Amino acid sequence: MNTDVIIIGGGISGLATAWWLARAGVSVQVWEADSRPGGKIKSQRQEGYLTEPAASLLMNFRPEVAQLVSEAGLDALKTQRLPQAQRYLLHRGKLQALPMHITGMLTSPLWSLRGKLRLLLEPFIPAGGAEDETVSQFIRRRLGNEMLEKAMEPFIAGTLAADPDLASAGATLPRLTALERRFGSITAGVLTHKLLRRRTACTTDSFSFRGGMSTLINTLARTAGVQVFSNRRVEEIIPNKKGWSVIARTADGERSLDATHVIVATPAPAAANLLSSVDGELAALLADIQYAPLAVLHMGLDRHCVKHPLDGTGFLTPRQEKQPFTGNLWMSSLFCDRTPADKVLLTTYLGGARHPEAAHWNDSRLIDEALRALTPLLNIKGHPEMVRIDRHAQALPLYHGAHLARDHAIAGQLQDLPGLHVEANYRGGVSVRDRIARGQQLAQKIASQLIPTTEKLPGLSLSPRY
Ligand SMILES: Cc1cc2nc3c(=O)[nH]c(=O)nc-3n(C[C@H](O)[C@H](O)[C@H](O)COP(=O)(O)OP(=O)(O)OC[C@H]3O[C@@H](n4cnc5c(N)ncnc54)[C@H](O)[C@@H]3O)c2cc1C
Description:
Elements: E1 5-8, H1 12-23, E2 28-31, E3 44-46, E4 49-51, E5 58-60, H2 63-71, E6 78-80, E7 86-91, E8 94-97, H3 102-107, H4 113-120, H5 135-143, H6 145-160, H7 169-172, H8 174-183, H9 186-197, E9 205-209, H10 214-221, E10 226-229, E11 233-239, E12 244-250, E13 253-259, E14 261-264, H11 268-275, H12 280-287, E15 291-302, E16 312-316, E17 325-330, H13 331-334, E18 343-351, H14 363-378, E19 386-397, H15 403-415, E20 420-422, H16 432-450
Helix pairs in contact: 1-16, 5-6, 8-9, 11-12, 12-15
Residues 8-14, 31-34, 39-41, 54-58, 233-234, 265-267, 270, 294, 296, 392, 395-396, 424-425, 430-433, 435 line the site of flavin-adenine dinucleotide (FAD).
């Protein structure tokens, strides 16, 4: 059976793009190597606890993401993040509440007077900075060293597993760097945005789904017009007269199919392997993207065993604290459906670019080290009744080095390969939100080539062929 588009890789990048394509009336198949779609996203129920090995929530401010959620019929299945007020930071061995507003920042004990004064100077710092500036250079230049060490470094390590001394500012903080470029300073940009927000932007909505993030995956995988094939590991992509042939290994032998467009939505190393015979330079650029390993440790405990009120989302650990983990999320305080009654669920992230070796510790060492650190901080008086460990050898792509230049070079190579696309979380953001938004952009481009009338219509609000 013919298809317009074959997507290789059924993670959120592949499935979201497939959803937008199907919505535009384009026939699409997703070929996934694993026995089920979802990639990193794989919600698990264990002893009544709901755990997430990767994305645990969708933090959205993009209208197109809200559109997909709504039109895929997921609004009724959304579970809102509980309105827990605090976010904590480990500071000199104690948990300190992070201020959420600039006024709170000025009174917080986290920053010295000098650090606070440096923060207030931001609007007066001239715009500038090298093209391949790192996150650390950018934040130090605009906001000072304390802001880097007590806010940005733990955020980058905790949410992206990256090292701000190596991460590209433009690729990692595209919105902040754009504010400087457009408005001359972050402060001026934020204030202008606040004024405009009333008219334009979508408010931030943090949510998951009943049954966890896999509910999003399962819903997208069932989209009419999308055929998802699991256990289909693609081994070769070959150009032909009309487009591309894709060849996969399955339990029943080899499968091949032709399509006008092929989207490679696998992690970068797998994409580099697949494309080495198509374009060596493109493959080398993809092979250059590094990944950080992570171990995700979930511990379920009786509520009375944890004396801390857990009145927040959890905490991040700055590098000066010298802890093996980058953060600890209080999942049972984030969502009400994560545990049986009177239990709590704590999820600890170990490894990343900061301590890659910790991701490879054996199970008992991971548990011991985490409990040793968490016990005094959260006043834990017992043992976990549920433990689950998820390991990722390649958890997240690191936007280190000249990542934007590399991405432009990838786009340049693809221009000479019509119908071939490369799209996964190493391009344009790792979050589920960014994956859905980027999927729409790519689907729009492909649909406008396959169905020329789409160019005249706004967004992907087309008359679907299905
Ligand atoms: C610990 C952790 C916590 C996170 N927390 C959040 C969060 O709270 N919120 C958020 O928005 N994001 C979060 N993220 C990020 C987000 O989960 C990932 O960026 C995203 O799920 C990656 O999706 P993807 O489709 O790009 O890649 P993947 O999920 O890696 O999917 C790629 C797919 O390609 C398949 N594949 C590989 N080779 C082949 C082949 N040859 N043939 C066919 N198929 C192949 C793989 O089997 C896989 O299914 C987190 C990530 C991690 C690791």
